[in-house]
Amino acid sequence: xxAVTAAIIETxxxxxxxxxxxxxxxEGYWEFPGGKLERNESPEQCLERELKExxxxxxxxxxxxxxxxxxxxxxxxxxxxxxxxYISGDFNLNxxxxxxxxxxxxLGTVTWAPADIPLVKKHQxxxxxx
Length: 130
Fold this sequence. Notes:
Helix content is about 20%, strand content about 45%. The protein is α+β, with helices and mostly antiparallel strands.
C-alpha cells in the first residue's frame, strides 16, 4: 500500500484542481494535488514539500479532511486529504499540465482520478449543505 497526500486548497470559494501530466500514473485525470509520503515524513510535511516541488507555492497545512483507500490495477493507494491554505507563489506547472479553480458545485465537471472521487463527493456534500 502506498500512502499519498492530497491538498484541498480553497480560495475565495473556489477549489484548486490539477490535471495529471503526461507520463504520470493517472495521466489526464484531475486530482487534488499532493504526493507520496517519504520515509520519516508526516503527511503535513509531505504536502508542503510536494506543493513546493509541483507548483513552487508555499502553503500552510490545516486539519485532516478525509481518507480513502483505492485499489488501482497495479497498486493500492491510501489517500490522506488535508485542508490546505495557499500562502504565496505563482503556480508553475511541473507535474500537471493544467489547473482549474472550480466552485464546489462544479467539481463534477471534470474527470477525476478514481482515488479522488470520494474526496470530491465529501467536499461537495459539506459545501453544498452550508
